[in-house]
Amino acid sequence: MFVTREGNEREEGVKLAAAEPKQRTVRDWESFRESWDGVHNFLLAGECLPFAYEMPPVERIVDVLRRDEEAHIVSGARGDRLDQTDVAAWFRSLPIEEAVRAPFALAHYKLAKHFGTGGLLEGFGELVLEPWQQALRAAGFAWTRCYPIVFISGPNRATNYHLDYSHVLAWQVYGTKRFVGLKDPDRWSPLATRIHSRGVQRPEQLAEEDELAYDMPPGTALWNAFLTPHWVEATDRIAVSVNLSHGGLRYQGKLCRHEEEVEDWQRQHPHEPKLLF
Q1: What is residue 148's DSSP assignment?
Q2: What is the maximal distance between C-alpha atoms in the chain?
């Protein structure tokens, strides 16, 4: 059969379109084992979400955590890189009714102190962390760290373009966020960028058609691939997520490709600052 050049190009275009990453949901551990070490984000559901927890009212979450000196509070202004404008003193001075409508972004990385009896997140360890870690272990995984982080975004605030040295299970618990990754992460963040990703800036050429985005209403959980570019935006209401951060995650003793590359680079450059922790 005679095939024209135009026909070949059309066929190739169909193949490329078919291969383009799409939104997907992983519901069982067999599928998770096939997907966890890739470069594309996906939603988690079914047996891959083995926990439930009733969070306190958002006003209490904000008020307790903003008074904790270990909370990191910035303006959360949208832009092309992470915002580091400290607004902690101002934000802590606001009445709570104003605070939940204010322009801010709060992150807290040391939540275990709030797990005890009467604490903000009483029972979180037993009801969320332990079931997740037990299920992950039963599926054949091991890790060097796994801990929760709370991220709170005021209305229309954002965590701008960045890469994380971790696998993250992002669990949306209040309000809605839009979690934006990329269809071709390695195009926009080659190895040199991944190694030196602190302060990375969103490429000017990045367009909407390059995005792989998920809208995350309450109850949604998303697996964010290790060291891949992403940003997260709140809608016109305050939004809260709890992220479970993983380092040294291995399946049958093997790291994902991106983390293995970082470890190899670190061994070859022993005098450089340590990237993984």
Answers
A1: E
A2: 76
First CA to last CA across the chain, in angstroms? 59
Question: Residue 15 domain-assigned?
Answer: no
Please report the pLDDT score of residue 261 as a whole number. Answer: 95
Asked if residue 268 is part of any domain, the answer here is no
DSSP state of 78: -
Q: What confidence category does residue 20 fall into, taking pLDDT thresholds of 50, 70 and 90?
A: confident
Is 145 in a helix, a strand, or coil? strand
| Chain mean position to CA 127 | 21
Query: Per-residue pLDDT for 44 more than 80?
Result: yes
Distance in angstroms (rounded) separating the CA atoms of residues 147 and 55: 17
Question: Does a structural domain hold residue 260?
Answer: no
Residue range 160-208, pLDDT digits in tens: 999 999 999 999 999 999 999 999 999 999 999 999 898 899 999 999 9
Tokens, residue 247: 């380092």
Domain of residue 72, residue span: 23-254
Task: Kindly tell me the sign of the dihedral angle through the C-alpha atoms of 115, 168, 142, 45.
Answer: positive
DSSP 49: -
Q: Is residue 220, in this structure, part of any structural domain at all?
A: yes
Task: Please give the pLDDT value at position 10.
Answer: 46
In whole angstroms, give the CA distance from residue 13 to residue 27.
31
CATH number at residue 103: 2.60.120.10
Q: How many separate domains does the chain show?
A: 1
Cβ of 4: how many Cβ atoms within 10 Å?
A: 8
